[in-house]
Write a structure and sequence with these properties.
This protein is of the alpha+beta class. The chain is built from 11 helices and 8 strands. Strand 6 and strand 7 form a beta hairpin. Helix 3 packs antiparallel against helix 11, helix 4 packs antiparallel against helix 10 and helix 9 runs antiparallel to helix 10. About 4% of the residues have low confidence. It comes from Shewanella gaetbuli.
């Protein structure tokens, strides 16, 4: 009996040697890891402190940013279809008898189109050039809160001679191109639409709260003017087209339809001329912000410190296992 017990114990020891308990290995590994980290604690503390100090310096070096925003509502567009689409669904069949194609009745949502125009390169470039905001966009340095004055980076822009002096490599030029300006402008502008209410929030972020407010107001004004101009041009062109078709047909019913379409185009032009807020109505105008919107200096410091700590621990562990293998 005792021989059988001894044989069983020997078999168990043999199995433990061949197949060690994973839990024991995990416990050993964790102890080893904590031991390595504890031995390298001073290096970890030093690296973490360097990262913490660097993140503080970086956070303090970032300028304050101010956001100005306006809440807009889509204007009640009486000519929502726009152009020939207004009555095409009603009279398209009759007009086709005379060989006149009025197009489909479905039109693009005017509010969404205005938003896309607002984001476009063409509109942004025209806006920057029209209001001469390139220095405030590309060479701005500081805003003085006490007297509301601004200064520009002398290495980029010479205010006295109104000249760009930045040093760049070809194909870039001292004066920033509209492509560069568009990329920079896209970083500071935000357009958000509430899907439930349809309200549009337009905001601009800048170092100067006064400039941010001014740009928001100018953007609202210019997009209304741009969409108005497009609709008037389309209505005028449509009217000319319809008048030419009237001269080509002798069918009284067709002429009646075409005159009604011309009347609709005249309403579109009149509506555009008398309405300033053509696409967007301002519900809550842009204000000069009294509080900064960024940067989040505390968050920068916390993330920088955490990053330093994680890198330090990884460095200590990697160094230990490299030495262990050697």
């Amino acid at each position: 009996m005792s021989n059988e017990i001894n044989k069983y114990q020997q078999d168990a020891n043999f199995q433990n040697q061949q197949f060690p308990n994973p839990a024991q290995d995990d416990e050993i590994d964790l102890r080893e890891l904590f031991s390595v980290i504890w031995q390298g604690k001073w290096l970890i503390i030093a690296i973490t402190a360097v990262f913490a100090f660097g993140s503080v310096i970086f956070a303090l070096s970032q300028p304050n940013m101010y956001k100005s925003e306006a809440l807009l509502a889509p204007a009640d567009a009486e000519q929502s279809g726009g152009g020939l689409a207004a009555l095409a669904g009603q009279f398209g069949g009759l007009a086709s008898m005379a060989g006149i194609n009025l197009g489909g009745s479905a039109g693009v949502d005017k509010t969404q189109m205005a938003i896309e125009v607002l984001k476009s390169r063409q509109f942004t470039s025209a806006f920057i050039q029209k209001h001469n905001i390139l220095p405030d966009l590309m060479a701005f340095d500081k805003w003085n809160m006490s007297d509301n004055t601004v200064s520009y980076d002398e290495e980029l822009y010479d205010v006295a001679f109104n000249k760009w002096v930045r040093e760049v490599k070809a194909p870039f030029k001292p004066e920033p191109s509209m492509q560069e300006a568009y990329k920079e402008f896209s970083k500071i502008i935000s357009i958000n639409t509430d899907k439930e209410t349809g309200m549009v929030k337009l905001s601009v972020e800048h170092q100067s709260p006064y400039i941010a407010q001014q740009w928001v107001n100018l953007l609202v004004k210019d997009i209304n003017a741009e969409m108005k101009l497009r609709d008037v041009a389309e209505a005028t062109k449509s009217t000319q087209f319809l008048e030419s078709k009237i001269a080509e047909t002798n069918i009284a019913d067709i002429k009646t339809v075409l005159y009604k379409l011309i009347e609709e185009q005249a309403k579109t032009i009149m509506f555009a001329e008398v309405r300033e807020e053509y696409v967007f109505k301002t519900i809550d105008p842009a204000l000069v912000s009294e509080e900064k919107s960024g940067p989040k200096r505390a968050l920068i410091c916390v993330l920088g410190t955490m990053l330093g700590g994680m890198l330090a621990v990884m460095l200590v562990l990697i160094r230990h296992f490299v030495r262990k293998e050697v």
